[in-house]
Amino acid sequence: MFVAAGPALAHGDEESGEGYALVQQAIGHLAHDSSAAGIMLAMEKVGDALATSDQEGVDVAQLEQAQAALEAGDAEQARPLLEESISEAVAGLPPATGEETGTTVISEELAGNDGLDGTDVGLLLGSIALLGLGVGLSWRFRPDDTVKALRKRIGGTPPPQPKATNGSVPSAAANSSKEA
Predict the structure, then answer these.
(1) Which of the residue ranges 94-108, 124-138, 153-167 has the most confident prediction, judged by mean pLDDT?
(2) Which ranges in the chain belong to alpha helices (H)?
(3) Is the distance from CB of 124 to CB of 117 less than 8 angstroms?
């Protein structure tokens, strides 16, 4: 019960032995990272694809050209060569259908909103009525005097605020302790 679980490894025990799968992985590395690190990972996959015995659907001559471009550090030239080198193998795969990744099947268009229907008009009128009610209530229950009228009735301008010596605004607690 207290034995710790081992780490989960996503790469499995061994990598794919299919040449076109290794080339696809190299293309993925270049698409993700075309820096020196990405080129090194892609070169490793291309080397594995050249060394594997299952090279069905892989154009080895183009794969070697892509390897030379990768060794020169030219990822932009290597990527189309890699894609062309496995075009035969990828063309032999069954086409994706339905919701699968890479599908060219276009689903039916979703129905849009044609305009305001009864529910929309009802919600719009209800919102306007609530807005009017809020404005009316705020007008009805507003204070009798404005701040300007209260200052006039008290007798003039507001008292000056004390200034702190360091340039900050003093807190209310500090003001009350000075008055006491």
Answers:
(1) 124-138
(2) 19-32, 36-51, 60-71, 75-85, 87-91, 118-140, 147-154, 172-179
(3) no
Whether 20 contacts 57, CB under 8 Å: yes
Distance CA 41, CA 29 (A): 7
Residue ranges per structural domain of the chain: 19-91
Q: How far apart are CA 165 and CA 151, in angstroms?
A: 28
pTM here? 0.47
Give the per-residue SS3 of 24-39: HHHHHHHHHCCCHHHH
Q: What is the DSSP letter of 96?
A: P
SS3 155: coil
With beta carbons less than 8 A apart as the criterion, state whether 69 and 78 touch. yes
For residue 41, how many other CB atoms are within 10 A of its CB?
17
Q: Contact, 52 vs 22, CB < 8 A?
A: yes
At 58 the three-state DSSP class reads coil
